[in-house]
Write a structure and sequence with these properties.
Layout lengths: L2 E5 L3 H12 L3 E5 L11 E4 L2 E4 L8 H9 L11 E4 L1 E6 L5 E5 L3 H11 L3 H10 L2 H12 L10 H7 L5 H8 L3 H13 L13 H9 L1 E4 L4 H13 L3 E3 L4 E7 L2 E7 L2 E4 L2 E4 L7 H4 L12 E8 L8 E4 L4 E5 L8 E9 L6 H7 L8 E7 L1 H7 L14 H4 L10 E3 L10 H15 L3
Parallel strand pairs: 1-2, 1-13, 2-9, 6-15, 13-19
Antiparallel strand pairs: 3-4, 5-8, 6-7, 10-11, 11-12, 14-17, 14-18, 15-16, 16-17
């Protein structure tokens, strides 16, 4: 039985610990905060509760695989609910489109309502990613990346110089369609000129697999995994800071923490590697993706009826999520701001045509810096800076022998499905006890 220390109690750390414990390892999880879950959590004020992380996810098969291979199936723990409309996009020319998930026909009809012919244009763009998805799934997402062993098609794809901004200009003539296709990356703080074109596969995943949420809130996913730590016998050390990985004979032998040294045969870094001196030098050519300005609002009275997620394009770009928990007769919204946000976010939202200034009962404002400090790093992982970001980001097996990487800062990147896949890749690399 090997001793494994997992650093970080977010989704990536929990998923890694659950899988490795089921494989028979003696697992200890170290978390700096006093609660598990990382960004998959909540914040509350005056009877209102808001999600602090994502409110939906793609590729539910990844979460199902995690639960099945670490204990009870997901469906016996949580209720996954499909989201019929992924988000509504509102443009500066006052047109809008509600983007359905999981259906080519529904997306075709939605874009044709925006303007005749746009449905076919959109669906042709999405269909072009079918082969990209198969290549990524086979050689990059479902097995640890080995450049020397990879298929030529995967190597060519990951090394492509084409960026997403150019791909979108080439395949989508209508600028509104380009805004929809680029939104997931723009929202996470990336410049589309620096995002590899193959990442546009997200539109393919949304159309073919849809978006899903968890009944009661996405934080329940982290709660269920926290419970699984007990089921699988994982030792959880809360309020404990991992300071560095201790090397002996050039290999990881322990983790130095604020509570003392923890012996380890394997170490999994599921936190920002910049916090560990032994790994910091290996990620010095990357930058973190900065979270957006975030404002949680508790509203009363007659407020506009918005879908679960609405994107207001322009500068600034605002995103409103309306599915927080509120007392009867009230609403809990979260507003995110990107771009030139030179005024209060509630006033900026009013300028977009949604005026709730008189309805605000309580609010919680979180700057990007406050969020990064809260989670000891950005939950959005690594900023895309062109095709070389793939090489500069940590692989599953890091350059430090005995140290592995999971989570948003590691391969294959940020977002719940990819973080979940990173844990599966770590489990493959370490193997059974």
């Amino acid at each position: 039985m090997a001793r494994v220390v997992v650093i970080g109690g977010g989704y990536g750390g929990l998923a890694s610990a659950a899988r490795l414990a089921k494989l028979g390892h003696d697992v200890t999880l170290v978390e700096q905060r006093d609660v598990l879950g990382g960004a998959l959590g909540t914040v509350s004020s005056e009877g209102f509760t808001w999600e602090t992380g994502p409110t939906s996810m793609l590729l539910p098969a990844v979460a199902r695989d995690l639960f099945r291979k670490s204990g009870r199936p997901l469906e016996r723990e949580l209720e996954l609910v499909p989201r019929e409309v992924l988000r509504e996009h509102r443009f500066e020319d006052e047109t809008r489109v509600a983007l359905p998930g999981g259906s080519r026909a529904a997306q075709l009809a939605a874009f044709d309502e925006l303007a005749p012919g746009l449905g076919e244009e959109w669906c042709a763009h999405v269909a072009a990613y079918a082969d990209v998805w198969e290549v990524l799934r086979r050689d990059y997402l479902e097995q640890p990346w080995r450049a020397e062993l990879a298929d030529a098609a995967t190597t060519t794809l990951l090394g492509s110089r084409e960026m997403l901004a150019r791909r979108l200009r080439r395949s989508l003539r209508d600028p509104r369609l380009r805004l929809v296709a680029g939104h997931p990356f723009t929202f996470d703080g990336h410049d589309l000129r620096d995002v590899p074109a193959w990442l546009g596969v997200q539109a393919y995943l949304e159309q073919n697999f849809g978006g899903w949420t968890v009944a009661g809130g996405m934080h329940r996913l982290a709660d269920a995994l926290a419970d699984r730590m007990t089921t699988r016998g994982v030792a959880v050390l809360l309020g404990t800071t991992a300071r560095d990985v201790v090397l002996r004979d050039g290999r990881a032998a322990a983790v130095a923490t604020s509570a003392g040294e923890l012996a380890a045969d394997h170490v999994v870094c599921a936190a920002d590697p910049r916090k560990l001196p032994v790994l910091a030098a290996h990620v010095s050519r990357t930058l973190p993706a900065i979270p957006p300005m975030t404002t949680h609002l508790g509203l009363s009275g007659d407020v506009p009826d918005l879908p679960a997620e609405t994107v207001f394009h322009g500068d600034p770009m605002l995103v409103v999520r309306t599915d927080g928990e509120a007392p009867p007769g009230h609403r809990a919204w979260t507003v995110y701001g990107r771009g030139q946000l030179a005024e209060d976010v509630v006033l900026a939202l009013a300028r977009k045509g949604v005026n709730v200034r008189a309805n605000v009962e309580t609010r919680v404002d979180l700057t990007p810096r406050q969020q990064a400090e809260r989670w000891s790093g950005s939950p959005l992982g690594v900023l895309w800076q062109g095709r070389n970001t793939v090489r500069h980001r940590l692989k599953t097996r890091t350059p430090v022998p005995g140290v592995y990487a999971a989570g948003a800062h590691a391969t294959p990147g940020a977002g719940l499905p990819y973080v979940g896949l990173s844990a599966a890749l770590v489990a493959q690399e370490i193997g059974p006890a």
